Amino acid sequence: MALPWLAGCMAAMLLSLAGIPLTIGFIGKFYIFTAGIEGQLWILLASVVIGSALGLFYYLRLLLIMVQRDNIVTEEPSGSVQIATSGNLLLIILTGALLVFGIFPQLLINWINAL
Q1: Counting CB atoms within 10 angstroms of each CB, which of 22, 45, 101, 112 has the fewest?
Q2: Within 13 Å and on the Cβ side, how many CA atoms surround 52?
Q3: Residue-by-residue pLDDT tens, the chain, 115 positions
Q4: Ordered alpha helix ranges (H), 1-115
Q5: Residues 41-57, buried b or exposed e (16+ Cβ, 10 A)?
Q6: How far apart are CA 28 and CA 11, in angstroms?
C-alpha cells in the first residue's frame, strides 16, 4: 500500500520546482526575476517564463497521473513502496524545510548572509 503522505511530499516538491508560492522554489524564481529586471535581461526573463510554463505543464501532468494511479493496472501484484525509516525521516524533514523556508524565507536569507 502506497502511503498518501509520500504522494503529498512528491506533490510539494513538484510544486516547488514549478515555483508555486509558499515553497522555496518560488523564492528562488523571485530572486531570478528581480535580478533579471534590475539588469534589464529581458531574453533571460522570457526564457525563465517559458521554461517555468513548460515545467508546470509537465509537473501537473505527473501529479494528475499520481492521483489517478488507482485506475491504472500495474504489473506488480503488491504495488507497495518500501522506504527505510531513515528515508522517511529525511523526506519529512526536507519537505518541512521546503515549506518552512517558502513561508518564512527571511530565516534562510538571514542565515546565508551571516555566513
Answers
A1: 112
A2: 18
A3: 457 788 889 999 999 999 999 999 999 999 999 999 999 999 989 999 999 999 999 999 988 888 776 655 555 556 666 788 898 899 999 999 999 999 999 999 999 999 8
A4: 4-18, 24-38, 42-67, 85-103, 105-114
A5: eeeebeebeeebeeebe
A6: 18
Q: DSSP class of residue 19?
A: T
The pTM of the full predicted model, rounded to 2 decimals, is 0.78
Contacts of 48 (CB under 8 A, 6+ apart): 29, 32, 33, 36
3-class secondary structure, 23: coil
* 65 Cβ neighbours under 8 A, 6+ residues apart: 72
Domain spans, the chain: 4-114
